[in-house]
Amino acid sequence: MIVTLDGPAGAGKSTAAKALARRLGWRYLDTGAMYRAIAWAALDQRVSLEDESAVADLARALEIRFDAERVLVDGHDVSHAIRTQEVTVATRRVADAPAVRDVMVEQQRRIADGCDIVTEGRDQGTVVFPQAELKVFLTASAEERARRRFRERTACGENVSLETILTSQQARDDADAARPVGAMRAADDAVVVETDGMSHDDVVDALVALVVSRGGETCQ
Ligand code: DC
């Protein structure tokens, strides 16, 4: 069974998708990490982000693996390196390239082949797995998402304002939604889960209930 979880940045998708996969005893696929890994490798190998076919060739050649919580690119642990601001900015350009997306879609389908999986991203229910048994679009209001990010980042000692976070979040939402291929949007048959006011456990419980209602079985 395939469960897709799409939605905007800061909606808590990764945490929810990971927890859901753990509760179900299924695989978890973080497709954002795949786009980030390509951007990291392009910067590392000085491949021009303007050169779409070179970036697509790079994407085809790289071995991206997930090992527990780690992301490995050709055997190198890039789990932290792919989360820097520089990589985040570069990732947006990589994700805009249709030729790169074609490579990613093919790899994501190969990874999911024959297993029970929770897959998370922007285009999982719309483009990659239109046949998924359950499609969820996880979202929250812009203010709520920005407040969550603000709490996370200031807790790490960063000096950032709520307004700055809201502005960059809006730019990211707009870029994700405007992408000509693989744009972020809820599939017509997706269940929209709006998480304002819900605790982490509430969100995971709601997702588990949806999976069970579609015939999925939990392992705990
Ligand atoms: O979810 P994230 O922030 O790690 O995603 C990183 C970037 O990749 C972000 O700009 C959205 C993009 N992305 C995408 O276009 N399609 C996906 N399936 C997953 C992420």
Task: Provide a descriptive summary of the structure in words.
The protein is of the alpha/beta class. It folds into two domains: 1-12 and 121-220, 3-Layer(aba) Sandwich (Rossmann fold), CATH 3.40.50.300; 27-115, P-loop containing nucleotide triphosphate hydrolases (Rossmann fold). Helices cover 51% and strands 15% of the residues. The chain has helices at 13-24, 31-44, 52-61, 85-96, 98-112, 124-128, 142-155, 162-178, 200-213, and strands at residues 2-6, 27-30, 64-67, 70-73, 76-77, 117-121, 134-139, 191-194. α1 (13-24) crosses α9. The model has no long low-confidence stretch (mean pLDDT 94). The chain binds 2'-deoxycytidine-5'-monophosphate. 2'-deoxycytidine-5'-monophosphate binds next to α2 and α4.
List keywords for this structure.
single chain; 220 residues; alpha/beta; Rossmann fold; 2 domains; 5-stranded parallel sheet; 3-stranded antiparallel sheet; 9 helices; binds 2'-deoxycytidine-5'-monophosphate
